[in-house]
Each structure stands twice: as C-alpha cells, then as structure tokens.
Amino acid sequence: MRNHWQKLFLSTALCGALLSPLASNANTAQREDVKSFIDRLVDKHDFDRTELGQLFKQVEIQPEIIDAMNRPYESKPWYDYRPIFVTEARIQEGAIFLQQNYKVLKQAEEKYGVPAEIITAILGVETRYGRYRGKYRVVDSLATLGFDYPRRSKFFLNELEEFLLLSREEQFDPLAITGSYAGAMGKPQFISSSYRHYAVDFDGDGIRDLLDNSVDAIGSVANYLARHGWQRNQPIAVKTTANQQQPKQMGKLKKPNTEIQQWRKQGFTPDQAISDELLAELIVLQNKNGSEYWLGMQNFYAITRYNHSALYAMAVYQLSLGIDQRVDSLKKETISN
Questions:
Q1: Topology of the domain comprising 2-60+134-185
Q2: Which three-class secondary structure state does DSSP give residue 142?
Q3: Which of 51, 117, 126, 161 is catalytic?
Q4: Which of 16, 47, 95, 217 could be joined to 326 by an S-S link, Cβ 3.0–4.6 Å?
Q5: Is 286 exposed, middle or buried (CB count within 10 Å of its CB: 0-12, 13-18, 19+)?
Q6: How far, in Å, CA of 43 to CA of 46, rounded?
Q7: Cα 230 from chain centroid?
Q8: If we measure between CA atoms, which residue out of 1, 142, 18, 3 comes closest to residue 69?
Q9: Which residues pair with 239 in a beta bridge?
Q10: Band of the pLDDT at 334, cuts 50, 70, 90?
Q11: Which sequence spans correspond to the domains of the chain?
C-alpha cells in the first residue's frame, strides 16, 4: 500500500510540475498548521511524511470555497429553494432513473426499508442522478475549510483526515477526486466520514464505489438512512392546516417528540388521516404569501441526518412524491398502449 501511495504522489507531483502553472499558494505544505496536521497523521495513522509533504505541496487553498460556504442554498426561503430541486425535469429524470434501476432499488428497499423513490430523490437532489458531482478537488475543499474557515475548522480537519484514510483504504488518487465545495463526493455526495462508515458494496464486486457505481450508491443511501433511524413502512410528513395565527418561522430542527394529538390541541390539523400517537415536529416553510405548515415524523428527521435542513428534507420528500406519481403514470400509459 505504501509503495502504491509513494508512486501515486511522486508521479502526480511530476505531472503537476510539468503541465500546470505554479499555483499562488503552492507552498501550502510550508504552513505551520499544515505541518502540525501532517505530524498528527504520521503519528496517529502511520502515514509517510514525505508522501504527505508531496501531496500538500499541490493542495490549493481556494477563497471561493469559503464564499460558497457563507451563502448555502439552505439559507434561502422555501419559495426560492423549492424551485431549484422540485422541477418537472428532475421529476422526469427521476422516474427514468427509478425504472432503469428498479430491481436494485427494490432490493435496497427490501433490505433497508427505505422506499425506492426516496433513494432516487436523494440522488436527484444531490447530483441530478449522478450527473453533477461538483467541480472542486475534495482535498482542496477540505483543506481550505479545515485551515482557513475557523467557524467549522475542527469538523473539516476531521473530514480531511477521514478523506486521506479513505484514499489509502480504497486506493484513490487523493488529488483526482472532485466533489462539492464542502468536500462531498460521488453520486450520493457522501462526506469522507460517511463514505468510510456507511458506504456498502451493494453489487458484491469487492469495491465500495460511490464515484461511478449506481448500485453501490443506491445501497449506500439506503444504508445511511436506515442507520440514522429510518422506520420501515412509516409516514414521512403530513401537510397541516393552522387553525389560528401561528409562528412564521420554525425554531431549531429537533427530533420528533410530540404526539400529533398534542399538535392538534395547539391548533394544527393534519390535512389527511394519520395516527394521533405518532411523534412529529412542526415544520414551517416560508412562501411569498405566508407560511406553510407540515408535521414531520421520524422518517423526515432521518432525511435531515443526510443534510441538517428541513428545506432539504422537504425537497427530497416532495421530489419523491413527484417521481412516484410519474412512475405510476408511465406504468398506466404502458399498460394502455
């Protein structure tokens, strides 16, 4: 393994020197905080110091990544956020993806209890079903945020450590993997720690490939949700009518701990039949002409473990409904023809 990494780093370094202009921050490896990070990896995980030095000479700190972190999609109001992800095109593409991968999706649903349309919708929101995975090198994103974004430095330095461990375990070229500005990668946009802990080899070929393998991506998304509390055959969310003046914004997203019958007493009436004993949390979405209210159950909360945003979970849920309806429609058209 060490010989593999040594050849990988040295060959990549040589190609970079011959083919690329000198980056303005080409001396990243000389930063004291980077040196301390390298020391820790050498002591803790037996990395080779020379190899890491060669790697970090090529790491680029990119201020635009920090700019992107400071203006995430999830800071938008619902009326601006929803049209980005719940679109006619994304629903149609999702229906096609579900049909093309129907057997694998159903296998994942049977094993993990997560519906095929939810798995599909997450892949749709994250990467448009694997087509758009991000333009930044993961190592650059994680280094930029780990070393130059103090507010979340601890988290991203941990992810950088996880990424280098992942690269060693899976024999990735750490300079070749691209992803989001936050360092998520592959068809399901797993961060490095999630890749290491929740990715599965769903096709049984001996490789956990979330970069190019839709089968492994499908199984891994289902496994992730199941490990984060997904409940088989249970509802996700229900739209709710507010019977009186209610808050225009929701507080911090919490795990559901209040029975629906208690929400009824507080003036929230579900728009469809649902058990009063289910635990739910109030979701408030901002529309242009007022607020929209939902009650999210445990499965809604499980989706937010993928991205800690009620907007994200609602977009996934509503996209999944659109995909499911479109697949049913296509099935009916096929039968009628």
A1: Helicase, Ruva Protein; domain 3 (1.10.8)
A2: helix
A3: 126
A4: 95
A5: middle
A6: 6
A7: 16
A8: 142
A9: 294
A10: low
A11: 2-60+134-185, 237-296
